[in-house]
């Protein structure tokens, strides 16, 4: 098949004259051979301006849990648009959405809305600091919490900026990030409960919060090892630290109760984004009432002109109704499809002598391209991931996949949505077979 992208190339060239760098989010520039321009989506499929059809496993970086353009979502947004797009005031819709979250998520006693998870992270950290009167935040190397200065600490430091394994405190190499922000963070290794205990012991009475992705999806796909989340909960309880689960990716993907119910833990605060709005700019902070006290009293500023925007609320209400109807059972079907895709990709990799190793939770997984001679076996932390992965070779395979109509995320992540079917997986593997053969040639 091998797609070409002349119209996307033409639009990208035109965009250079108005949009800085041609894109509106840095990662989009990584799409090779050219950032794609889309015309429309339907279900599991995306259609670009060149008329190419993709089986989409990127699904809006995880936001499109319900598939592209479901009729009910379009109707909900359209109906609201006719009544007004923004009032900067209250609406019954915001209570409807908040009550749904309370019903779905254990521990969601109170709720506040923002437009992006990046903003919600900032709210959560501010609240935790105000609640405890402490300033340090503990986070894990490789975990991403939005693009604010604080969210980037320790996210993707290159090896020449790594600290010692005992003290892995380094900034993301983004220019313009305030270096002093490092002084307000303690960074720990993911999936190493003993190391975490040491890090907390060093600073226990100064740490306001521990923030983490329950299934690390922004650096490979690394579920927590047994004991990891239990240790976070135990250390938070023992030291008066606020436990913040960043469920921006995992929220609703793992069922109505999110990853926390699926994995059996209750955080103090939870960050929700992406799937909560099905592709509109909407995000929420939920958690126990006592942690919201300083927002409720007005001592902590939480603001936003477009917060609880009725257009987004109408979308969120529709999305949450889908998840409530499916309950906590829907992950099973998505996991089964994802595992089939992982197994199929592994088989194709073996047939073509390509060192590709899918790893993850089925409904979201990462396909790791190993460097020659790299150690086999599960990848469990950030440094392991950086040291073992062959990023240029994956980029080439991804491009071949794209040219055959299979779209995965630039860094190797694959999402299954509720719109994917058995036929999609079968067809994706048929198309992938062509891509793998071309890559190996
Ligand atoms: N937290 C996590 C775990 C994320 O994956 C992301 C985005 O990918 C964010 C926070 C930031 O979300 P947003 O891009 O909506 O601001």
UniProtKB/TrEMBL annotation:
InterPro entries noted in UniProt: Aminotrans_3, PyrdxlP-dep_Trfase, PyrdxlP-dep_Trfase_major, PyrdxlP-dep_Trfase_small
Keyword Repeat on entry: no
Enzyme nomenclature, EC number: 5.4.3.8
CDD domains named among the record's database cross-references: OAT_like
Keywords, ordered alphabetically: Isomerase, Pyridoxal phosphate
Family assignment from sequence similarity: Belongs to the class-III pyridoxal-phosphate-dependent aminotransferase family.
Protein name according to UniProt: Glutamate-1-semialdehyde 2,1-aminomutase
